[in-house]
Amino acid sequence: MTASSRRATVPAGRLTVPAGRATTVLRVLFALLISVHLGALLLNATTVVHLTKPALMPVLALWAQGRGGPWPLPVALLCGCAGDVLLQLGGETAFLAGMGCFAAGHLCYLALFARAGRPRTAPWVAAGYGAAWLGTVALLWPGLAPHLRLPVAGYSLLLTVMALAALGAGVRTGAGGALFMLSDTLIAAGLADWPRPPVPQFWIMATYIAAQWLLAAGATHGAVPPPRAGTGAHQPVTPVRR
Questions:
Q1: Is the pLDDT of residue 159 over 70?
Q2: What is the C-alpha separation between 215 and 167, in angstroms, rounded?
Q3: 237 lies in some domain
Q4: How far apart are CA 73 and CA 108, in angstroms?
Q5: Quick check: 223 pLDDT over 70?
Q6: What backbone phi and psi angles, to 5 degrees, belong to 120?
Q7: Is position 158 within any domain?
Q8: Looking at the DSSP assignment, which residues form a beta bridge with residue 8?
Q9: Residue at 201 is within a domain
Q10: Beta-carbon count within 10 A of 31 CB
Q11: Which terminus of the chain is more exposed, N or C, with fewer CB under 10 A?
Q12: Which domain holds residue 149?
């Protein structure tokens, strides 16, 4: 069976996605890691949490790479991994460094969406996202430590811009950007001593993992990885326009 005959058919005008055993294995492994990690959070199994959390994003990055994701995507996911590890260390220095890693990941996502040449969102939608950012920062500001106010405000602005760009890229990526905002708002609520749901870390990680998955799945939807040596000419990675 040739490589081309293993490709799943899609509607006319869309690029095909090669069915690869490796990407299937990685997807299953990612699902297992999610189940174990979230279950460990509910059971307060700290050791399991600390072992599984750093493995989540590298597995997703490998899956995205296998799906033909452009280079900013796996780099963004690995920046998320670095941020995850730093946040596990605890302390304000590690927190600020972790926030910097996530900010680098958002810049990679912005580069990814710019590279794909996605359409922009309507002005009223952009205004709504801007109002959400301003309102959230204004509410959080009094409860944040003075030295955290500007870093949190700047980071959340970058996150909002990324989420808005993700919305312009499609439904999946838009949902991913929105969930990323929700996850980080839950973290900021903890910094400001706001009320949060029971087992807040579970909800933070559940929304964060879903966000990264949706961003990766949306960005690789319809992407075609280059063929192996000897199987034909190089095909550029081109995300499908919605």
A1: yes
A2: 10
A3: no
A4: 7
A5: no
A6: -85, 160
A7: yes
A8: 17
A9: yes
A10: 12
A11: N
A12: 20-220
